[in-house]
Specification:
With 144 residues, this protein is α+β, with helices and mostly antiparallel strands. Helices cover 32% and strands 26% of the residues.
Length: 144
């Protein structure tokens, strides 16, 4: 299973799924995602690589500046506590429209974790059309 659900506590903390903790280490960098309604959580090493790549882009391009503000400017380090929780800022929770007491989904994307409101995930799942109608041949993924 690659999707896990946990509840945000009153202090804005949430348990990182136990099955994922071994692979991510002791801390995550949480930031806004490119996709609305999601946060992205990276290992510090993965985030550093992304930051370095973005840093190489021209700062004269307005899209690059917006990318820097969105991904780098909103990023916050989140260390796992002794119980396996991370504390995420109110601003980041507000960006995906969740508050303490609500459930969020962690989706393991292998190179990062995506975090979204459980209600958002369920609504998108209902509204999504089948992948069978998409032309996936350009991805050349065998065995699907």
């Amino acid at each position: 299973m690659a999707r896990f659900t946990h509840t945000i506590d009153a202090k804005g903390r949430v348990f990182v799924p136990a099955r994922l903790r071994d692979s991510i280490g002791a801390s995550l960098i949480v930031t806004l995602s490119l996709d609305e309604g999601y946060l992205s959580a990276y290992t510090p090493e993965a985030f550093r690589a992304i930051r370095d790549q973005i840093g190489q882009l021209s700062g004269t391009d307005p899209a690059v500046r917006r990318l820097k503000r969105t991904i780098i400017g909103e990023a916050m380090p989140c260390d796992l506590d002794s119980q396996g929780r991370i504390s995420v800022s109110d601003e980041l929770w507000a960006a995906i429209k969740v508050q303490p007491g609500e459930e969020v989904c962690f989706i393991d994307m292998f190179d990062k974790l995506e975090i979204c409101a459980k209600s958002f995930y369920e609504q998108n799942k209902i509204e999504q059309r089948s992948l069978a109608s998409d032309d996936l041949t350009r991805f050349d993924v065998r065995g699907l």
